Amino acid sequence: MTKPHPSWRVALPAALLLAALACDASDRDAEVLVKPPRAATTTPRDTPLDELDAGAGESASTALSWTGCDISKKAYMAECVAEYREQTGIEITLSGGGATRGIRTAVGGMSDMGGTCRHALPGRFPQEEGGTVLTHVAWDALVFFTHPDNPVDGITSGQARGVLTGKLTNWKELGGEDVAILPVLRQQTVVGKLSGVGYMTRLMLFEDPEIEYTDLAVFRMSSGPLEEFVELTPHTIAVTGVSSARKCAVKILELDGIAPNKDTIAAGEYPLFRPLYIATHGTPRGRTKDFVDWLISEPGQAVLSAAGTVSLAEGECLNEKYRHWPTDGVEREL
Description:
Blueprint: E1 7-11, E2 64-68, H1 70-88, E3 92-95, H2 99-107, E4 113-116, E5 132-146, E6 154-155, H3 157-165, E7 182-186, H4 196-206, E8 218-220, H5 223-232, E9 236-241, H6 242-245, E10 251-252, E11 254-255, H7 262-266, E12 273-281, H8 286-295, H9 298-306, H10 318-321, E13 330-333
Parallel strand pairs: 2-3, 2-4, 6-11, 7-8, 7-9
Antiparallel strand pairs: 1-5, 1-13, 4-12, 5-9, 5-10, 5-12
Helix pairs in contact: 1-9
């Protein structure tokens, strides 16, 4: 199938699979190991990651499985899956759990596809070596957001860094009320800081994936619960993807005077834009390839765009402006 827009596919070498899951705040130094790879399995795809055996290839049923980034799931996958089912009769089951889960279940063959809002890190983590290919399908942006009753409408990048590192602790320092700031952070293992939001915020805002955040924070296991907590809790602040934040009852803050909306993100005016990927074990094939090809074709991109996410065509200029493309084994597919 001819692909009308540029996409990025990132090929990574093969190795054993391990998988890390974020745990509660008292145990976030630990990583959970997944059993070593073996032959393909028909284990249901919503089984917890640490209970799955790693397999390979497509699931044997007529359904496909997608696991991973809650932001991608909420932003466009639900709408795209519904439309694809209407057009083809193919069911695609969706399971969240984060970008790291998406990459590593795809590597191990536990899911036909993974959704991820960060690139894979095979040079740092053998858990992400295993023939993974990342296909760029859309654009997102990291946004800071707060409870809807908060009078603050925007912050600067410097203030954002101060809040995340604990140097700014009162809303009056951001032009708000004289009340303590309650940061809400995505739980992650200290060894890797691997969530899609956590890793990409550190990379793009601090230029340092290892920067330490404040420990005066509330932690949540994934983006969905994090967003829900901010909806209900005054004086909170958090980071997530705009593609899901805009579907929540929260106040999305301007950053450096720029509101994050579809136009400012697509033009590269809003600073924290980033790619969204589909992860597969090797180049997509079979029914998985059919879906990925549809998703980056004009009909699939039209559904994605109508859901409010920036499509490849809408964000075409971002290919040159984005500064954090992975460097190992990158192939730009026209």
